[in-house]
């Protein structure tokens, strides 16, 4: 059907309001209480228009479009009524916008700019309501409320949460939580729809949530934004919650080929940025990934659409079968390149195999995931050390990726460091992993305060050491090791010596003890540690072995014939080194980080190498169609208090005698319950952002 | 990464950026503007109108001020410590710019002055009728925010000329090649990266008023402690940093000072009620200026900033309050409503109860001083001296206007602490009279322009309130001049 607006004929569909027909045709009519996702209310009356036939002036959002209708949006009657409506809104809205964080993002401001209403009736009644900043994540600044009711309708109609309503306060009616309850008490699920639809600065993200220079979706869904691999966390958590593990695995596998390994040993920066932490504790995202991936392992759903392009005829060699090299090889092989990985050790896996102990990451898990990678046609050559990457170019490879990691433990210039029985963490862990370790003694001292120090200490306990000390400079709350690593280690008998400086390793030919001194603190000066020692606190810990776990460096890079920065390989943005066709990625470029960073580096290098070889550099995959989440999340009076689930551990008596996996996977109930703790921060991004006047072609 | 090719790139579409974009487009350039907000106009949406000298409006109102006279006034005010040629070109252009706006459909209610000096100081500090106040599109008398109507007309004009304004898409880097800017990098709200390439870049981002670290670094003020300035979201100084990084010369900046009470918009009645020529003292209890000047927000802001703790205290007694309630304020403000004393009791009681820190009430001067944090002996002595002068009918110290010599005698006494405030920052990028950016050696960087408050180095230490509408006036005219020059540059 056709209707005429301001003399211009526009098409309309049955069931459309005049407002919708106008906006659809690119004719802007001011409106505030109408939101694209919400039913019309006719409340703000900014959208009033005149029906030429009847002379009636009514809100166009409530006026059904009828064939042949003639509408004037700007007749004297209509604009007079609209102006009055705006004045009524502004009469109680604070006049000064300069202190409002919504300035420049405010729909009311834009509407006001469009209409240019004079201020003669302003300042009539200020309805100042104390700001309520007591709720987590969502700030209520209802002095600015214009009573459009959008938040209330979104909360009730779109979400079924029924938390917000009109409340009658001394100053008048406004939006709020009835009964003076907090959002948590009212059963809010903190989805943020109210923030999203608020046209003013009345309901806002808590200060600090929206960071400058970060895109809007990244600010709203920080877990996904900070994941180095970019996994769509809220999306796979929803599948896990519903028990759809195959679908969850497909979502995870769109970004990384190690879901089961990372579900165990990821350092999960996502959890550090999880907004749920503002309520109580972050969602246990890492362990949920494991719960989903372990259950989905036999399914092939994710493979159904996996990309495999025809062969390009280009050959790529990867040096090092760690997480970076394996990831890069996987994606490059899927782009049709011919891939060969050269690995110095007997097995693939890199630090995942030779650094991380099996009680944290069992061999069979790693084997299965590597098998999938090799399954796309990646050739693996083990026991093959490549000293000069350029040799591979000479052998006919079109590109080479150096991803040899950091496999050389740092040995400090410490008195006694050459004594028999002193070993670096990398050597110790690798020897333990390959059963090539010389006998270790009864008493061990580990030097270092990171996760690797605890890996060494707990491995030593499993190898039969009776007394294991971990000595580090840091105080307990400054340690780099994750808290659960420390706690599990202490439970297994590790003796922790915080705020301690090792002065020397003592012994005659062989280690007999370490001399330590307590410190008040330490800092770095020109890259060297400076400690403030406590006088008279020297003591000696008797021991048979000392394991040094204070850092790792690349091994063998100096002979590679490419430009270095220290021991690390220098690269530009494309990850290409100083030698054409030779790329480098992962720990060997940026120093020891995490497995998920390594995966991200592998992806980045694959993109870059593909482009170098003439491809488009696009390694993205859509393994499963996007399914819009169910927005009707309901209310849950207990939601804010839902406690984080902790994985069960095997009995201490059992685990200290073997390398069996310590941490157990969540059972079905714990999996569903933990996944249900997710706030689904991405839900609000599914809402439509209203178009403002300056985005329309034709206007009133 | 989306790529855009254009002639002129404007960084931010506030008042100066819009003016630059329109002027460049009118002169044949293809223009793309990057704006952080979802709305054009930036801080100008809060304003009332720009300065102009020699406009049609002024002529109609029989205002005889010439651009040359305005130039002289400005130069005396700034003691010639600013770029005279830029000041001259700005005023010379400003009347025509008002006409230019009117041709776009902007209407002005008339020309006003923001400040009218008391008789005895008129020779030094009177306001000129330069302030062109925008007529709200929907009719009615003008007020704060009415300039947003002008922004709308300018935005429509820009669209008509084919200027592409990318909203919620801040530029974050100026691309420099061969020593001159050739484009910018920007990012949409959704996170999409954009690389725009052009022959000229105009920076128009509005200063650093919302960036406490930069305020501290540039001026020494501590936001929320020694300075309670407007902090308009988005004014983070990113444009200044981008320009400096791209080789622009760095010149000293200032904050555009005035004064107000903390969180004044939530205590607006008190903000207005105490802005009267009653008794004003510093933390030692000592008067520090003739109170007949307090309507001059620039001078008063300056005076407060040199007092101990950078605060002042405005004090009246019950008799004076009764008089204000009955007869209205001694000094009528163009910002605060004249009926504010009708609402005084309600706001005062509420704020006292809520513990609003800047205010105090007491039955004796001693108690008032103690509550307000003023030196007790100092205030007692000052009130005694002041009341004696009131009885004598003459201010021996500052020769304050006799009409305002009203004693502070009858309790309860009311006090409100006043703080230094500012509209925003001024200046930072070294420019010449064509608004071309110069490096630290004063060498022009081809194709590089800065406008608006990012380039407003012409005020010296204080806002020239004597030629009111000046900030918006400079934004408009610097933008327009730069836009015209950029269009000419790219056609060369």
What does this structure look like?
The complex is a heterodimer of chains A (700) and B (492). Chain A starts with a strand and ends with a strand. Chain A folds into four domains: 2-100, Ubiquitin-like (UB roll); 216-303 and 643-676, no CATH class; 315-407 and 554-612, FAD/NAD(P)-binding domain, CATH 3.50.50.60; 411-551, 3-Layer(bba) Sandwich (FAD/NAD(P)-binding domain), CATH 3.50.50. In chain A, helix 9 packs across helix 12 and helix 17 packs across helix 18. In chain A, the strands form nine sheets. Chain A has a five-stranded mixed sheet, with helices on both faces. In chain A, strands 13-12-11-14-28 form a five-stranded parallel sheet. Chain A is elongated. Helix content of chain A is 28%, strand content 17%. Chain A has 700 residues and is an alpha/beta fold. The model of chain A has no long low-confidence stretch (mean pLDDT 93). With 492 residues, chain B is α/β, with parallel strands linked by helices. Chain B has two domains: 2-253 and 427-491, FAD/NAD(P)-binding domain (3-Layer(bba) Sandwich); 258-421, Alpha-Beta Complex (Flavocytochrome C3, Chain A, domain 1), CATH 3.90.700.10. In chain B, 33% of the residues lie in helices and 19% in strands. In chain B, strand 7 and strand 8 form a beta hairpin. Classes of the chains: A alpha/beta (700), B alpha/beta (492).
Q: Based on the structure given, which CATH architecture of the largest domain in chain B is correct?
A: 3-Layer(bba) Sandwich
Percent of residues in β-strands of chain B? 15-25%
Work out the radius of gyration of chain B.
Answer: 24 Å
Helix content of chain A: 25-40%
| CATH class descriptor name of the largest domain in chain B | Alpha Beta
Count, helices of chain A: 23
CATH class of the largest domain in chain A: Alpha Beta
Whole-number count of domains of chain B: 2
* N-to-C span of chain A: 22 Å
The proportion of strand residues of chain A reads: 15-25%
Distance between the termini of chain B: 30 Å
CATH superfamily of the largest domain in chain B: FAD/NAD(P)-binding domain
CATH architecture of the largest domain in chain A: 3-Layer(bba) Sandwich
Work out the count of structural domains of chain A. 4
Gross morphology of chain A: elongated
Rg over CA atoms of chain A: 32 Å
* Adjacency order of strands in the biggest sheet of chain B: 6-3-2-10-17-16
Quick check: average pLDDT of chain B? 94
Largest interface: A-B, 42 and 49 residues
CATH topology grouping of the largest domain in chain A: FAD/NAD(P)-binding domain
Average pLDDT level of chain A: 93
